[in-house]
Amino acid sequence: MMMMMLAVCLTGMANDGVYYVNGSQLVPAHDTNIAITKEVLSIDLNDDGFARVDVQYEFDNRGGEKMVTMGFEAMAPYNDGEKFNPGGRHPHIFDFSVVMNGEQVQYKNALMNVDDTSFTPLDMKIYRPSEYMEEGDGNQLINTKTKELVDFAYSYYFQARFKPGKNVIHHTYRYRMSNGVGRAFEVPYWLTPALRWANHQIDDFTLRISTPTFKHFWIEQKVFQGGQFNVISGKGKTRVAPNVDMEGHYEIALWNGTVEWHKRNFVPSDNFAIISADTYTMWDDKFPSGYFYDRSDTYYPRFDGEYSEDMKRIMRNLPYANRGYVFKDKKLQDYFNKIWWYTPDPSWKQDTSDFTEREWRLIKGE
């Protein structure tokens, strides 16, 4: 039995944020002689509010051919306003697909008890939402016979045929990125379930994070020790975050590109999240307006109260600075030179065709 778990993360957001789901590993729910020999985890951060996950696995089945029940579990969302779906399909997961050894795998949906590793669908003739479960806001069902409360998950499960030796699984899906006040986006991902495979590690692991436009984000260092994030395509900058507010994080600014982290014999010590770089800095005077930038509609500049005329001018020029415009005005150039993500690009032809609606509103001072 195997399962993939997506969990909702409620810590620290209360009612000022929306949490949907987070990605995780395909893992066994019982002892197995199947090992992960290679994994390439690719996460695309898109401006439409969705992350796309593409995972290429290579497994080594050290025994004979076997059929294995595999599953994907997604905890109920928080604060999203969606209605409870007894059919088991998560309201914020789309385009779920599994291809194993070149063949498309068919899957089913059901609600399941998150503590039940037998991966048995709950009998919805017996279970109903508990009185404590607000619409779209909880994850507990009540057994109408025993009155027992259970935490449930929206589940996707299927049968997979493992042949002896090498097996390849290609798994993809899209899901909504969480967000909140002072946090434009957050994409949590569970890595530690990989320890449940026979080799208790990933022999060859690669993480790739890509964006089609521009994203500025943090990732905790503690999970990704013994290596570094490298820009392998497009344009980007990486560093260890320089001050106490961001202590223990990598900081990454990425323009239509990809960063990669790679390690052999990877034993994940914890889970991780990709977090927009406005977190903890939104209202902090140590960080200038524009320190964090994002091209999506979720972007909001740090607010200093009443903007001065100089600050309004800076706001109007943020979209140009983000594309590398070299300012002739010394005041503007000096200001943006202090912004870490700013990278002057004399070759930029002032093409505004990719400016977003939000950016045009910035330019107009709206």
Please provide a brief summary of the model.
Helix content is 8%, strand content 42%. The protein has 366 residues and is mainly beta. The model is unreliable at 1-15 (pLDDT under 50).
Distance separating the two termini: 54 Å
What string, H for helix and E for strand, traces the elements in order? Answer: EEEEEEEEEEEEEEEEEEEHHH
Main pleated-sheet profile: 12 strands, mixed
User: Rg, please?
Assistant: 23 Å
Strands, total number: 19
The proportion of residues forming helix, as a percent range, comes to under 10%
Shape label? globular
Q: Oligomer, anyone?
A: single chain
| SSE-based structural type | mainly beta
Low-confidence stretches: 1-15
What is the residue-mean pLDDT, rounded to a whole number?
85
Number of helices: 3
Strand content: 35-45%
Structure description:
This protein has 366 residues and is mainly β. α1 packs antiparallel against α3. Strands 2, 4, 5, 7, 8, 13, 14, 15, 16, 17, 18 and 19 form a twelve-stranded mixed sheet that branches. Strands 1, 3, 6, 9, 10, 11 and 12 form a seven-stranded mixed sheet that branches. It is built from three helices and 19 strands.
